[in-house]
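Fresh eyes needed here. Kindly weigh in on this sequence plus structure tokens:
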Amino acid sequence: MHATASPAGAPGFQRVYVWELPVRFYHWLNALCILVLTITGFIIANPPAINTASEASFSYWFGTTRFIHFVTAYVFVFNFAFRIYWGFVGNQYADWKNFLPLRLAQFREVVSVLKVDILQSSNRPLLAVGHNALAYLTYFVMFLVFLFQVASGFAMYANMSDAWFPQLFTWMTPLFGGDAGLHFWHHLATWFFILFTLIHVYLVFYHDYVEGHGVLSSMAGGWKFLPASALKHADGRSWFGSARAKDDSAGPVI
């Protein structure tokens, strides 16, 4: 755990470096890819009628839209593959084991977070140095949807491409009853990302307000502000687990 003294005016808090640069880079590039893929995907699914007086060969806007969608899909895949790699080599907050509820304490934290975020039956915020257990679990589900979206997208793309990579996913087309069925589920998964983004943005602002740990700015600079007293009992991933932070790893407290 990398912690330093907090700025003046924040008594009893320590600044902890949580999100490494590769994680932050993945986050924002992933957000951009999802935005571009969603917009171009909706245009491809329901292309608007654009009237123009110019020659048709000069107005290849739909082909350009498809090209942007396909290129962004490749960027999305490589970015996702890099995040999986970083789950094995990154710090304790990026560790892949955090995304799987393997311990009873993680299940208990999921319930506790639900009481705060969803049921509103508790107004006591939970300390999580990285993500809380529910957020990690949600991201794991999102990663599974990522895999489906990538596989289904390239399966549909395989019909018009001779490249070897899209051909790896042709088995999905008959599994979903043909191109129409696969297109339906691919389109439906897009709405998952839209709903996830809305909820994600809301919860980021909500936790930033309720907890006051700098959640909103942490994905820009990588740092969170956490109570020094609580950090003595905090796990490297969250407050659960066995990897306790050492007292000598923290800087002075203001």
